[in-house]
Design brief:
218 residues; alpha/beta; seven-stranded mixed sheet; 7 helices; globular; binds S-adenosylmethionine
Length: 218
């Protein structure tokens, strides 16, 4: 059977989005970092860091000390940033309370077990640590095939429930579906014909900001 190349490894996404493999480029990254009051020296983990663009941005613009994990050997090999390791988002190779902030941009819904991922984000964050999540969401739609970013997208209410269930307090949930429509248009212009999922009805994009509040799982 022919191997399906996931959208985030296709040249069309690089052509449409550059090194930020998601809708909006750095717009939501900067928005989240500013909202949490990121300070120089913060230790920040980017889960599903792709090409390391967010790490470089948070380092150069906010003075953060950045680390990144990605499950793809190809992505890690393309990443120029130091501090990147190959690892799954739901099995983070870091100590408890190691970070002031965790970023997870366009990745949570790709994890086979997002709840296990959120538990890990909670574990590696220090007291009152920040979680910045941006992701695709869906309001009930036909399944899209393997390799689509939207394959396992869920409604934002479901993501919110999972985030709260992992021990976070959601402090902001914003709809940014316009950024998704913009990327969909650029993907078409770049020649993307596969089921990227970005242009389908019922699909949107959001930014969620949350803070670690309590120890979960008694
Ligand atoms: C849409 S891209 C986003 C990359 C990056 N966050 C960005 O915005 O540029 C999704 C990334 O998640 C990674 N990924 C997929 N499943 C993963 C998993 N289970 N654990 C860690 N990373 C994963 C992919 O390899 C890919 O680099």
């Amino acid at each position: 059977m022919e191997k399906v190349i996931p959208l985030w490894e296709r040249p069309t996404l690089r052509a449409a989005a550059g090194d930020t493999l998601r809708p909006g480029g750095f717009a939501l990254t900067d928005r989240a970092a500013e909202a949490m009051g990121m300070l120089p020296g913060w230790r920040v983990l980017d889960v599903g860091c792709g090409l390391g663009a967010t790490m470089a941005r948070l380092c150069s613009r906010f003075g953060a000390e950045t680390f990144g994990v990605d499950s793809s050997a190809e992505q890690i090999a393309r990443t120029a940033m130091p501090g990147t390791v190959r690892a799954r988002g739901d099995r983070l190779p870091f100590a408890d309370a190691a970070f002031e902030a965790v970023f997870c941009e366009c990745v949570l819904s790709l994890l086979p077990d997002p709840e296990a991922g959120l538990d890990e984000f909670h574990r590696v964050l220090g007291k009152n640590g920040w979680l910045a999540l941006s992701d695709l969401h869906a309001s009930g739609h036909d399944a899209c095939g393997a390799g689509s970013c939207a394959e396992r997208a869920v409604p934002p209410t479901r993501t919110r429930a999972m985030v709260e269930g992992a021990g976070f307090e959601v402090v902001a949930l914003e709809d940014h579906s316009g950024l998704l429509r913009d990327l969909a248009a650029r993907l078409i212009l770049a020649g993307e014909t596969g089921c990227g999922g970005h242009g389908r009805a019922g699909l949107g994009y959001h930014l969620m900001l949350a803070r670690k509040r309590r120890i979960c799982h008694v």
